[in-house]
Amino acid sequence: MDGTLVGLTAFAFLILLLGLRVPIAFALAGVATIGTFVIFAFRTGTFSPDRAFRPTSSLVFSNSFDLIHSYDLSMIPLFVALGHIAYRAEITTRIYRAARVWLAAIPGGVAMASVVGCGGFSAITGSSIACASTMGRICAPEMLRMGYDKRLATASVAAGGTLGSLIPPSVLFIIYGIFTETSISSLFLAGIIPGLISLLGFLLVIWVWVLRDPSAAPVEDGVTSAKERLHAAIDAWPAMLLFVIIVGGIYGGIFTATEAAAVCVSAALLIGFAQRRLTVKSVIEALRETVIQTTSIFIIAAGAKIFVAFIALTGVAGEIVGAVQAADLNVVVLMLAIAAIYLLLGMFLDPIGIMVLTLPLLVPLVEGYGLDLIWFGVVVIKLLEIGLITPPVGLNVFVIASVVGREVPIDRIFSGIMRFLTVDVIVLALIMAFPILSLLIPNSM
């Protein structure tokens, strides 16, 4: 049986299963296992199932085993644990408090502080969903209490939460690096400038919003003194230290990304206990949440690894590369098509699911065009970031909706999100048009 036909049929069934809301890990592993069995069973031209059991089980178990025992994959539980420990030690929330004090006198300052807080939180946790959930509980209710426009109060946090995808460390960058066999340290560094541009773009949206409609953001009463601002800035030093360890350590060649994660977890524990903000009970709770979150990621990754091996076996990727090259598409048209695919999938699937579904087919295509995989990784993560706030299934928007409850209908949140989406599209265009924005820091190592 033709491998390409099996691959395309399996891919169609996979899309169908995802449409039926089958968990993506089981859909990937199930379709890949059955497809692999069919290929081996028909290898001699006739259906011989007895000859397919051993090679199928070997492919399935060896690929999942190799993935779980990957050294790079150990970064995920370390960075996830860092996020939970830093939150319980109040390291992440102090970034928001510092920004809150410094920006209090500016119209829309609390919304801006929320975005800055999300950026700081992202620089430690690496998870957009966790960022939106945590900062949403802190920032959104406070802005609503102050009388902020409901769209601004919720949309600013939902958009700010997406910064966890680009600003290092990022779980999505880790998964991308493992599946494309690119340097995760370089990916982390490549995300810094695009992440900061995105953050500044969100701040600009808030400033213009409030400039055009001052009633959207009531000015807070009271003026903070220089002493209060200095104290708030000093109080945020643990977060700055952890970020310096991650970025400075990697850039300076002192640590690998995995070593930086381990050092930061140790530093967060020491700081939390020294400042008496951590207890043994809170650490155990953080580790428990880490195990739950990491396990779900590992199961999806294992299913994806099996699917990648199956796609390689079918030869579908090579056929697609050949067809696209025969069509003689230029790079601009290719990248616009890839962007359209990601934006469409982002309306319905979660970021990890989109990435593991598309990378087996798109990476060989991108390599065939001689494009830089580090730059392409930043483009992919930015597209996934946009998907987190794109209707009808913007995960970050639903996270914020669950935090504020019935006070703000979800359609109101999406209404406010559209202004931030405009900036996201502009930033995406800049990243695609000027690869130097992503490659400047990695290339200077």
UniProtKB/TrEMBL annotation:
Residues 12-435 form the TRAP C4-dicarboxylate transport system permease DctM subunit domain. It is found in: Cell inner membrane. It is a multi-pass membrane protein. It comes from the Bacteria. The keyword Chaperone does not apply. The keyword Transmembrane applies. One of its GO terms (molecular function) is transmembrane transporter activity. Keywords: Cell inner membrane, Cell membrane, Membrane, Transmembrane, Transmembrane helix, Transport. Pfam families: DctM (PF06808). The chain crosses the membrane at residues 68-87, 99-117, 152-179, 185-211, 232-251, 295-317, 329-349, 361-380, 386-405, 417-441. InterPro entries: DctM, TRAP_DctM. One of its GO terms (cellular component) is plasma membrane. NCBIfam families: dctM. Belongs to the TRAP transporter large permease family. The complex comprises the extracytoplasmic solute receptor protein and the two transmembrane proteins. Part of the tripartite ATP-independent periplasmic (TRAP) transport system. This is TRAP transporter large permease protein.
